[in-house]
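Hello,

Our lab assistant flagged a job as stuck in the queue for most of the afternoon. It eventually completed. Since we weren't sure the result was trustworthy after the delay, we are filing this so someone can double-check. Below is the sequence as submitted and the structure that was eventually returned. Let us know if re-running is recommended.
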Amino acid sequence: MNYKFADIVINRPIERPFTYSIPEPLKEDIEIGSIVEVSFGNKVVTGYVVGFSDKCDIEKIKPINSIVDKTLCVDPKMLELTKWISTYYYSSWGEAISAAIPSVLKKGASGKRQRKEKRDEEEKEFEFIDGSDKHLMPNEEQKLALDCIMNSIDARIHRVFLLHGVTGSGKTEVYLQSIAHALEIGLSSIILVPEISLTPQTVARFKARFGDKIAVLHSRLLGSKRISEWRRINSGAAQIVIGARSAVFAPLKNLGLIVVDEEHETSYKQEDVPRYNARDVAIKRAGLSKAIVILGSATPSLESFYAAKNGRYALIELPERIDSRLLPAVDIVDMREEMTRAKKIPIFSQKLKEWIEKDIAEKKQVILFLNRRGFSTFINCRKCGYVIKCKRCSVSLTYHFDKQKLVCHHCNFNMEPPEICPECNASYLKYWGLGTEKVESETHRLFPQASIARMDTDATHKRGAHDKVLSKFKDGLIDILIGTQMIAKGLDFPKVTLVGVISADTALNLPDFRSAERTFNLLTQVAGRAGRSDLGGRVIIQSYTPQHYSIQASKNHDYNTFYDKEISLRKELYLPPFCHMVSLTLRGRKEERVFKASDNLKSSLEKEIKSKNIEILGPAPSPISKMKGMYRWNIFLRSETAENITSILKKALNKNKSSGIIITVDVDPS
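-- returned structure --
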């Protein structure tokens, strides 16, 4: 190494690299991609070497302090990938590289420190699930799928396959055999799952099939365990990586295949800078390595299905369940009629009650789904109409019976429920709405003979609680499992013959152009938990808008009908996948200043756009206009490509820096 200076990027929203001198003792070990520590201002921060030079015009140049770990280095393809992420998702290169490296590695932490009891607990992870995995003979549809995929793997031609298979059609077996084939010819694989804690059976099947060749990366790993897994991957000891979103950056050599399971899931979108979508990053990474991508889903995102319909992706269909098992029969109950009959707002329809009683009597299992936590969703005064809201967010507080508290689900503010109205001092306070706690309470009342458990973030926040509930359910110790979207995916329990959807309307009423798509996805996925054995299955969906096309299509497990209706609406309204959108959110303590900054930013954007084909929507208050004490306004930009928009953003945002105003940029918001 003859260079005197290194160009280093850091995890800050600053585009350009900074130049540091290379001390003599480090010259032997430093290279492009080295992770280093440098002085920045009055702090020591982690940086990434992205270039070298012989000359520097700065007089008093700071030296690099140290190399964090001589054995770890960001390889050239990862540098290229992170450079693309920084350009596409509007972040600095340093922020993008930082997202690709686990924080514990950036600290140079030792892999030796690990508390034994924690290690033992981690090693037991997923043990409660039956990990035995038979090498199943593929059926005709699976054979066709595997032939296409394996031929592409052999040819080392980058292709994206959209594997559209109904729930229970054997998508996982296609993944397993594709990965096994890649392994045979010396290629490594990544399997992305939406949330590792919600898909324990899938993880167990991969571990059972591939044993020590597999490494698992997820947020619950202790730092030392994460380091050891990362080293196993980096050294080639592990050739298969399974994990959530950030596993897309695993340092595998000879990458041949990336699987994105449940590719439609919104959890693949990162909420912090850089706000990348792991599905799209997976496709870009595979392209750089001439690797194959399999996007798998029973309910593909409209963007992916549209790309498959237009020939950008190869579409593979698995239209039937394995062993020709029938999809569960779906009944839709009109809750408006139930309300008229009962003269009140019922939680359970007569039909759902009857089917629960029948299945419990026959020693079968039931899943009840409601995508809303808590006991009551709001409290209001029947005299003056006052609704008790969060002091920091513009939302009503949710009553949690087990805590005897009103809680904000956005900032966690909580308070004792008042006995009299804070506005008019009347004692006519009424608890309204419905959450999983209330469903659990009513289920205990109606079915006292049944063993009942609840699975939501409130009930399973303790480490291991999630696994304990699923273990009991698997062993038949729980008759009725009540939960939020936690229970909607990845679970395969043969004794579940009935799924009840308490309210299909919760997602439909959100101010989001994807609300119909989310409703269809959730209903289809949760319905897929029933009838996964010879016992058959039934799904009962309760709704106050039963005529909606997303609910009707889910009744028939009919993705194509839903897609045709939804895609025509999106085209008419010029929404994704017919355009790309970028969301700008402005936040500040004073509403007037946020509004003024939004207005000024719109004016700047209009000047920058000129001849570019970009449309501005807004500014307007966010659906939740105040959160954690900050007022929020949105501006949306849409155009044929995201690059059209991001190319003009830098100038406009640099001209509109206001004290006390934070602006966040989200490309392709989910």
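-- support follow-up --
The delay was a queue issue, not a problem with the job. The result is valid. Residues 604 and 655 are 8 Å apart (CA to CA). The first helix runs from residue 76 to 88.
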